[in-house]
Q: What sequence folds into this?
């Protein structure tokens, strides 16, 4: 909070107090008028009803004036000084009008002194108490005839000396009240300053806490003991797609499923001082997408150490789990590749033996015989099988496509030759080629 903000807040507080003072003065005047009328009916020596109505009228007019000044002027302290000075004059007039030193209106001096300490501080409260003592002393001495022999009915105990002592006792009481109320006002002011500093520090800490929670890239959810969501940070909104207003008050199972057993496990871990266990669950976003969430649960404790809720922190593991699945799939493919290489090696060994045997037999037959032609086909096919195995082993490094001219007639001639000597072709079949 800046200095300007603090000054503005103090001004609003003082203005509010002054407004209550204006209203309270009017209510006090009404109460005094009612009480005065009751006491007159009981036979006490108090001002008659017409004088009570006069007091009420005067206070009402002053209230209107004070209200206008309050709207026009921003100098709250000056208005307070003026109003309290008028209050001292009114109380003195009431004491004078009651025509006795033991007037019950004397207590209003103490009220004025106490109010002055709230508005004007310690020093001016003492000044107000001195002014009240002076006004009361002058009024009392004038009533008792200190400059001449006054009526004995107005003297305390019929003695002037006792009357002076009584007045002095009141004056001392006024001064003591001024000192005490000023001291209390000063202490209250210091308490207000400390309270304001504490409020400012608390606001700063709260803002810092909110910034920290907002900057955490993990989702943070707080719930009450019943599992209802209370807060939902920015990362949680980004991960799940839910807004804070839509999710607040909902049960945490909307995100994490049934977590009562997990909460119990987390509480046991916290009681034993162990790390909070990690859990995983599937979650549907607000758009219906399925996520894989990893989360942990910690108890939320109050300052008294009482568990008031739960704090759930979670992360989106969807991409991580997808990468892990891809890695496992690649591992399986690598294992299949190693097995395929072993199988291909085992196939190549008998294939090489077969090719060598055919080559030896080929050397013992005539070149233009049908047996020689069949052996050539076997040799070519064994070479093709070997190339297939080679291509299979090198699938990770595919070769570019090579285009070449092929004699289709030669391929057909080889195919017909294989079919003529195939055991599946019976004598009922006749194969002829016209190429």
A:
């Amino acid at each position: 909070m800046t200095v300007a903000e603090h000054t503005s807040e103090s001004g609003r507080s003082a203005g509010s107090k002054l407004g209550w003072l204006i209203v309270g003065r009017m209510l006090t005047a009404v109460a005094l008028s009612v009480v005065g009328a009751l006491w007159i009916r009981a036979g006490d020596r108090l001002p008659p009803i017409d004088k009570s109505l006069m007091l009420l009228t005067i206070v009402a007019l002053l209230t209107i004036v004070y209200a206008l000044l309050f709207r026009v002027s921003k100098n709250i302290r000056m208005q307070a000084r003026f109003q309290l000075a008028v209050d001292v004059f009114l109380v003195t007039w009431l004491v004078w009008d009651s025509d006795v030193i033991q007037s019950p209106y004397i207590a209003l001096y103490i009220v004025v002194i106490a109010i002055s300490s709230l508005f004007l501080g310690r020093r001016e409260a003492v000044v107000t108490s001195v002014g009240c003592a002076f006004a009361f002393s002058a009024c009392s001495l004038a009533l008792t005839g200190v400059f001449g022999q006054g009526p004995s009915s107005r003297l305390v105990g019929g003695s002037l000396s006792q009357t002076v002592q009584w007045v002095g006792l009141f004056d001392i009481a006024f001064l003591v009240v001024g000192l005490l109320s000023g001291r209390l006002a000063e202490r209250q002011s210091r308490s207000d300053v400390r309270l304001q500093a504490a409020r400012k520090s608390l606001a700063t800490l709260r803002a810092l806490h909110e910034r920290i929670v907002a900057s955490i890239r993990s989702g943070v959810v707080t719930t009450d003991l019943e599992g209802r969501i209370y807060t939902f940070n920015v990362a949680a909104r980004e991960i799940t797609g839910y807004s804070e207003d839509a999710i607040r008050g909902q049960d945490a199972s909307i995100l994490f499923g049934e977590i009562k057993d997990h909460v119990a496990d987390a509480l046991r871990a916290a009681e034993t001082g162990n790390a909070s266990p990690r859990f995983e669950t599937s979650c549907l976003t607000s758009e219906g997408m399925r996520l894989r969430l990893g989360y942990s649960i910690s108890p939320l404790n109050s300052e008294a150490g009482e568990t008031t809720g739960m704090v759930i922190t979670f992360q989106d593991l969807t991409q991580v789990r997808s990468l892990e699945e891809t890695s496992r799939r690649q591992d399986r493919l690598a294992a299949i590749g190693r097995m395929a290489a072993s199988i291909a090696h085992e196939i190549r060994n008998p294939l090489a033996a077969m090719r060598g045997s055919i080559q030896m037999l080929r050397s013992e037959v005539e070149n233009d015989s049908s047996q020689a032609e069949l052996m050539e086909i076997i040799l070519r096919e064994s070479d093709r099988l070997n190339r297939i195995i080679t291509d299979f082993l090198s699938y990770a490094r595919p070769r570019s496509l090579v285009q070449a001219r092929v004699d289709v007639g030669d391929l057909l001639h080889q195919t017909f030759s294989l079919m003529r000597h195939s055991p599946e072709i019976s004598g009922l079949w006749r194969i002829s080629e016209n190429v």
